[in-house]
Amino acid sequence: MITAALFLFIALLLIGALLHRRVLNTKIHFTGDVEIYSEHMRGLEADRDKGLVADNEFKAMRAEIGRRMISASRENLPKEIHYKSQNKWALPGIIVTAFLLGSIIYSQIGTPGQPDFPIERRYAQSDALRTNSLSQLDAEALAPTNLVIQDTAYTNLIKDLRSALKLRPDDIQGLELLAKSESRMKNYPAAHIAQKNILQLKGDKATTVEWYAYADLLIIAADGYISSVAEEALRKALMLNPENKLALFRMGIYFDQIGRPDRTFALWRKLLESGPESAPYIPLIRRTIEDLALVAGVNYEPPEPKGPTTDDISNALKLTDIEQQTMIVEMVASLEKRLAKSGGASSDWAQLIFSHAVLGNDTAAQKTFQDAIILFVGQESDLQILRQAAVSAGIMQ
Questions:
Q1: Closest CA to 250 of 289, 220, 275
Q2: Which long-range contacts (CB under 8 A, 24 or more apart) does 341-344 make?
Q3: Element of type H or E holding 174
Q4: Per-domain residue ranges for the chain?
Q5: Average pLDDT, stretch 332-345?
Q6: pLDDT digits over 222-251, tens only?
């Protein structure tokens, strides 16, 4: 289908150029009454120039000759049409050239052997994926349990806080503390419930950061899956601040999830070009942006990486505690995915071990350390780096 369209377009273009050239070289010779009246008109103009015909007589006679010329031209079509001869192989040559050019172009930008996939069908498929998406509860039921076991004293404090909030459900500060505490224990379902209560109490005063925090907790609780509830929370965050970069990044993931990588490309291109390069989502975007561009039908070359500017560093220091925590979690997740997919130096694994420990996830830090030890077995210098990271993280004496 695409090859045929390209062939037809190029063929019409080349044939049109050939016909245009032929028209430019065409000579039309009129015979009969039209040519006679033309000669009369030229003679009348000559008599007027010599002063043999007055101006009022000239106008009347010219109008009459013109009327007769028009009448004669309708009755007598051109009798002779001559054009310079063209090569008899020109038209076949154009057809062959059009076919070859169409084939070459399609081989470069098309997908030979694949059936057409109309855009309406893609949209319909996307709507179906969205309609049939998992609910938040179903997604959470499929997610692994990652509860972090804390010491008894800390656990008792959380229990006391839960009990107190049952008596004071309008205590926003208590709910904020509970959301952070449940998140630290990786009890994300309970954390997003607490965050939802905060949003309900604040109503129109809720900020884009608070809406994103709610969406983030929903997504983490569902092991990365973005349900319709999480999507709505992301949209709320973007309504309050269309430049919320973390929300834009998550929306890009959502669009890819429902089969709209073209919209993912549009969002992630904006994030990549606006930076900063130190943002936690940039590595993932850089790895996928060219594939997304290809799917979206865009010829795109991503910009070269740039280091953070003074303004970027200054802005990062101004982040709230929730924003900083969110950014750290995103950076750790990005590093973990990169190492799992492509591997990395021992220093990168050491950074991941220490980062998990900083976030209070000693279990993940221990598992990362064990995986890295196996990966670098026999490489003593690398093992020394990993052991030092484990000691600094507090998971090894």
A1: 220
A2: 343/375
A3: helix 172-184
A4: 2-109, 148-308, 338-397
A5: 77
A6: 988 999 999 999 999 999 999 999 899 999
